[in-house]
């Protein structure tokens, strides 16, 4: 299995992305495993929150370029996390790239550690951050979104916190998580679910209004000659032809 699911620990279930040899890339198998895990947790009254973390030095490298996921399945998974009654909290102390930022973007809270780095690398391989724009554009600082979507620059956890991608950056992410998880444990389950609905309303509006358009855009770009060249160059570890 590309992930593991813990038993509840004082109401917190830890879901660990555990496919480090593929840098926790978003394959069809990983999407299906995550969806199955969430379906089992959503209606469980013993689960107050979900902690999403990872093994290895990468939280999620984005789409598996050898086996790109179906855009519809990716949208469905992201929407499932947004609509999960319980908050989802990310612990990130590794690299996050491209589609992995969409997975991070649907989490309600997130803490980044010193090993975390981030980059919207889609433009470098000939595609666009289409699907992941649904949860991220309503939440990110607009100027930062323009800069990092267009340039694909790498940035660190402190910058991720500044632009609203994560809740906090900390030298010790586990220590920083402690008050967040304790606060969720102290919250009434029904009130927590209704508060999450208030906070995710704009994101759900984006999913409802734009999902079809971004899925079509994603499929068109991934099927383009430019993307085929970009992905091939990436897999072969050579320069893309458009780099000046």
CATH architecture descriptor:
Alpha-Beta Complex
Strand order of the largest sheet: 1-2-3-5-7-10
Shape: globular
Strand portion, in percent?
15-25%
Structural class: alpha/beta
> Can you identify the CATH superfamily?
2-enoyl-CoA Hydratase, Chain A, domain 1
Summarize the main sheet: 6 strands, mixed
Quaternary structure type: single chain
Question: What does this 3D model show about the protein?
Answer:
It is a single chain. The protein has 244 residues and is α/β, with parallel strands linked by helices. The protein has one domain (1-171, 188-244): 2-enoyl-CoA Hydratase, Chain A, domain 1 (Alpha-Beta Complex). The chain contains 9 helices and 10 strands. It has helices spanning 28-42, 71-83, 99-105, 133-136, 142-151, 157-162, 173-185, 189-222, 225-235, and strands at 3-5, 12-17, 49-54, 58-60, 88-92, 95-97, 109-112, 117-119, 154-156, 168-169. The strands form 2 sheets. Strands 1-2-3-5-7-10 form a 6-stranded mixed β-sheet, sandwiched between helices. A 4-stranded mixed β-sheet has the order 4-6-8-9. Strand 1 (3-5) and strand 2 (12-17) form a beta hairpin. Helix 1 (28-42) runs parallel beside helix 2 (71-83) and helix 2 (71-83) packs antiparallel against helix 8 (189-222). The radius of gyration is 17 Å and the shape is globular. The protein starts with a strand and ends in a 9-residue tail after the last helix.
